[in-house]
Amino acid sequence: MIVVLLLLALFMQAIFSSSHKSLTADESGYIYSGYYYFKTHDFRLNNDHPPLVKLLFALPLIIFNYNMPILPPRYFDSTLKLHLFMNLAVATDPDTEQIVFLARLVATLLAIALGMLIFIWAKRLYGLNAGLLSLFLYCFCPDILANSGLATPDIGLAFFFFLASFCFFRYINRPDWKNLIISGVTMGLALSTKITSLLILPLSLALGIFGVLTGHKCVDGKCNRNYKLTIPGFLLSFLLILIIATVTLNAVYFFKQPFQPLGTFSFLKKYHPQLLLSPFRNLMLPLPKEYINAIFGTIRHLNQGHNAFLMQQFSRQGWWYYYLLAFVIKTTLPALILSALSLFFIKKQGKLDIRNEIFLLLPILFFFLVLSVFKSVNIGLRYILPIYPFLYIFISGLSVQRLSRKRLGRIAIVILCAWHLYSSASIYPHYLSYFNELVGGAKNGHKFLIDSNLEVGQDFKYLKDYMDNHGIKKIKLFNATGINPHFYGIDYELLREDNLKGGYIAVGVSTVMMLRAGLKATDRRNKVIDWIDSHTPIDKINYSILIYKGD
Cβ atoms within 10 A of the Cβ of 149, count? Predict the structure, then answer.
């Protein structure tokens, strides 16, 4: 009953908070591209990431026979045209609200499935109390709740990455054919979510070798010596898992265009033409063509860098500590304290082996290490969302540690859990903008992080309500995030240097912070930014939009 209540709390928070939020540009792209894949089996559209989660978002639209226009081939000539078409297709549909609700509902259901899996793994490792503790922390995590109500691939990545890790953990401990096949299928599903999921391959290889070398044979709290793996046996089984994963990945792509010669890929023709003069040009990988294109696109993105913001500084190449800092200031403070206590009290307990904790800690460390090395794409905390399930299970180990056997220790854990709950409740329904007390809360978050850490154009519904309540017919807008506000009935004109006088002005916090930092980095000036800096906002909508009165 407690598990059901906690998952119901997660469901209600995600659904009700998302109902307050306007459609974002990324969501419209993911929803429409999934619909397009079903209708055409053409995966070129919006192919930055593999299609699994996008297909899941669009699955209700197929089941309930929603009809959206099919993108004409001529639009593939322009990335701008592609995104404009996808935004229009979703945002102007007569059933837009239902379409967005159904897609976001899929994200919420994935979050619930992830919560159930967290409870199962923690319970098997440490017992019932640990399962409940890990699930409680997960269900009231602002970062999880923020992504559980948006139709973006991040919660899908967290679920499938964790599912594949759990199944692989089961295989290492019980290496039979059933667990091998399940591990291969779930690993293929994980690879079908985001390119980031490729991290599961070296991570699983390292954990598997570690498990074999240390004689890792503990399952559900019981050690069974009948299940053994050797290094050669594991490497062979890992190869079989990769083969099954590859077949699963191709199935997600409807077995579309595998085994294409590398010489046919435009990325190599443009950036590495020397490879086309070598025998590699005829090499054919057993992967879908658009999956390889997605990998090439990620490589290009890493090489080009991404406009990044951190502590009012601008960079195209990022900072190695970006994700570590984002984790520290966007994770609830009680969860950070519980993490520190878990590390301090970690030790071997009865039949449980400390090597179980390695299977939980290594994915966390691996994510931070890899994203610190490839630092040129500092976009948002959502890139490390998969670490939270591992973290909360690791924390749940406190239930069998020395601390929980003392009355004061149990009281401290209860107080920290209550604080964690309060942190979640106090930011509702604006989970995306959550920052902890180390930086003064959400009201100061924009001074440290922006972009998907703060806003993705989710507050246009609130802007429309504000205009209606204050009798504002038309507003001047300075906001580069989200979809066209016209879709929400907002009459606006873009704020320019020549229209600063009179009327009301709505300024997106992320837009102004990024532009201000970029101007500072290049020692340039901008009259609009100068005007904003010299005036005080008369109001603020949530944590993402500032309202000014023109001179």
Answer: 26
Residues of the chain predicted below pLDDT 50: 218-221, 223-224, 350-352
CA distances from 213 to 169, 204, 210, 216 (A): 14, 14, 5, 8
Q: Encode 1-66 in three state secondary structure.
A: CHHHHHHHHHHHHHHHHHHCCCCCHHHHHHHHHHHHHHHHCCCCCCCCCCCHHHHHHHHHHHHCCC
Question: Of 63, 94, 3, 76, which is closest to residue 33 (Cα–Cα)?
Answer: 76
pLDDT of residue 219: 45
User: Which residues lie below 8 Å from residue 394, measured CB to CB, with a gap of 6+?
Assistant: 339, 342, 357, 360, 361, 364
> DSSP letter at 349?
B
Task: Give the whole-angstrom CA distance, residue 477 versus residue 547.
Answer: 10
**DSSP-based three-state secondary structure for 352:** strand
Q: Tens digits of per-residue pLDDT, 279-333?
A: 777 788 899 999 999 999 888 888 888 889 999 999 988 999 999 999 999 999 9
Angle 263-266-267 from CA coordinates, rounded to 5°: 100
Please give the angle made by the CA atoms of 536, 541 and 544, to the nearest 5 degrees: 90
CB contact set of 128 (below 8 Å; sequence gap of 6+): none
Name residue 539's beta-bridge partners: 547
What is the rounded end-to-end Cα distance, in angstroms, of the chain? 59
Measured distance CA(136)–CA(299) in Å, rounded: 38
107 near 149, Cβ under 8 Å?
Answer: yes
Structure tokens belonging to residue 157: 């990545």
Contact 546/518 with Cβ under 8 angstroms? Answer: no
Name the strands in the sheet holding 492-494, side by side, starting at the edge strand that comes first in the sequence.
492-494, 475-478, 504-508, 545-549, 539-541
CA–centroid distance for 550 within its chain: 38
